[in-house]
Amino acid sequence: MHYFFVTPAQVRDGFCLIAGQDVNHIRNVLRMKPGEQIGVRDGISRNYICTLDKIGEEEICARIQSEEEGGSELPARLWLFQGLPKGDKMDWIIQKAVELGACRIVPMATRRSVVKLDKKKAEAKVRRWNAVSESAAKQSGRMIVPEVGQVVSFSQACAMAQKLDAGLIPYELASGMEETKALLDRIRPGMDAGILIGPEGGFDVEEVEEARQAGICPITLGRRILRTETAGMAALSILMFHLEGR
C-alpha cells in the first residue's frame, strides 16, 4: 500500500484531502483510480486507511475507511547534528536516520568539513534533503516527516543542543565504555536528545571542548574509528534499542 502525508486540517468530514506534489504522483506516476486504497498519516499521531474517491488535477479526496493511533515513533525525540560529508553521503545519512527514528536532522559545518556551501547551494541542498526525508518516512512507516534544517555552524549546533535535555558527541579519542553506557541510560522517554557527528576527519579538539563547555558529553562508540556515515547510525541504533526496550 502507498502512504501519503497530510496535515490535521486536511482531515475533515470523513475524508482526507491530498494536495501538492502527491497529486501528480497518484494521478500520473502511480496512475491510481477511484476505489483503490491508500494509507494517509496526519503528521502527528493518526494513521488512516482510505479509498480514493475523487481524483482532481489539484486535489484528491480520499474517503476514510478506518483509523488508528500511530505507534511507530520513538518515545524520545532524537536530533542528529551531522557534519557536512563529501559527495552524496548526506542523502544516505538522512534516509537511514529517518528509518532509525530521528525526529530532526541538522546539517552542520565544522572546521574539518571539506564541503563548503554558499547560501544558494545550501538552500537547494536542504530542499533535496527534505524530499529524501519524506520519501524515507513514507517507506519506513513514520508518523511524521522529520525536518532537515538549514545548515548551521558548529557553535550554532552546540547552542541548539544545549537547549535539549541531553547532548552527546561521539569522539574517537573518548574512552570509558561504562561512562558512555551511564550517559545513554539517562536518556528517557519524553526527552529531547542531540547527537553531534563530525565529518570526514572528525572533530577538532577545540570543537570537542566547546561542546563540553555547552554541556554536551563526549562518548565512545567502541574501539574502532567509524566513518561519518556510520557513526550517526551506530548512535541512533543504540538509542533506538535502548528506548524501545524499556
Shape type: elongated
Strand content: 25-35%
CATH architecture call of the largest domain: 3-Layer(aba) Sandwich
- Element-by-element helix/strand order: EEEHEEEEHEHEEHEHEHEH
Percent of residues in helices = 25-40%
Specify the CATH class of the largest domain.
Answer: Alpha Beta
CATH H-level name of the largest domain... which superfamily? Answer: SPOUT methyltransferase, trefoil knot domain
Point out poorly predicted stretches: none
Q: Please give the number of β-strands.
A: 13
Radius of gyration over C-alpha positions, nearest whole angstrom: 20 Å
CATH fold call of the largest domain: Alpha/beta knot
Give average pLDDT, whole number.
92
Total count of helical runs of at least 4 residues: 7
Largest sheet, strands/sense/barrel: 7 strands, parallel
N- to C-terminal separation? 31 Å
Q: How many distinct folded domains?
A: 2
Write up what this structure looks like.
- The chain is α/β, with parallel strands linked by helices.
- It is built from seven helices and 13 strands.
- It has two domains: 3-69, Ribosomal Protein L25, Chain P; 77-244, Alpha/beta knot (3-Layer(aba) Sandwich), CATH 3.40.1280.
- Strands 7, 8, 9, 10, 11, 12 and 13 form a seven-stranded parallel β-sheet that branches.
- Helix 2 (89-99) links the parallel strand 7 and strand 8 (104-109).
- Helix 2 (89-99) packs parallel to helix 3 and helix 2 packs parallel to helix 7.
- The chain is elongated.
- The mean pLDDT is 92.
